[in-house]
Design a protein that fits this description.
This protein is an alpha/beta fold. The protein has 6 helices and 7 strands. The chain has helices spanning 10-16, 40-56, 86-96, 131-138, 167-171, 175-184, and strands at 3-5, 23-25, 65-75, 78-80, 100-111, 114-126, 160-164. Strands 1, 2, 3, 4, 5, 6 and 7 form a 7-stranded mixed beta sheet that branches. Helix 3 (86-96) packs across helix 4 (131-138). The N and C termini lie close together (9 Å). The mean pLDDT is 92.
Length: 187
Amino acid sequence: MKIILASKSPRRTELVRLLTDEVIIRPTDAEESFDDELDIYENVMNTAYAKAAAAVRFDDDTKNIIIGVDTIVVCGGEVFGKPSDKDDARRMIRALSGISHKVISGVCLIKNGKVVRFYDETIVTFDEMTDEEIEEYISTDEPYDKAGAYAVQGLAGKYISSLNGCYYNVVGFPVNKIYKELKKLNI
């Protein structure tokens, strides 16, 4: 049995290897859209499912397990995905400065037609950042492929004063919760 990770994220690729070396990376182009009729938790789990389901089409080994993950940042009721440009990154980092926000990862596991969906949530608190610090940060390459426009494991780490929950969830792959769910499936 192998784990098939439906992601192109280098961070998720690194973290899934904490579970096993038997990994196949299978990026998908599943649409990351939100339905206003659903809450944020259902939406992020639906996106994780879309990613995993897209990878199922290419796997004919029923012993394999497919994992899809989607991570969002929620600040003041607004969902922050990946910034579209520098102005969007500035807006996001400015909104996160000096306050706490949620990082939510939706996860979907598919094995032999069985679907398990769940989410993990971490509260992250940023220090107050000056305009100069914000400009310095968004002038790096780091913010542009990450939900909320920051990487806890990167340069943004110096502005994060606390985490309440799973650190790896903030990186984009809640290792402990996924491991526990795999154990429930006897994997």
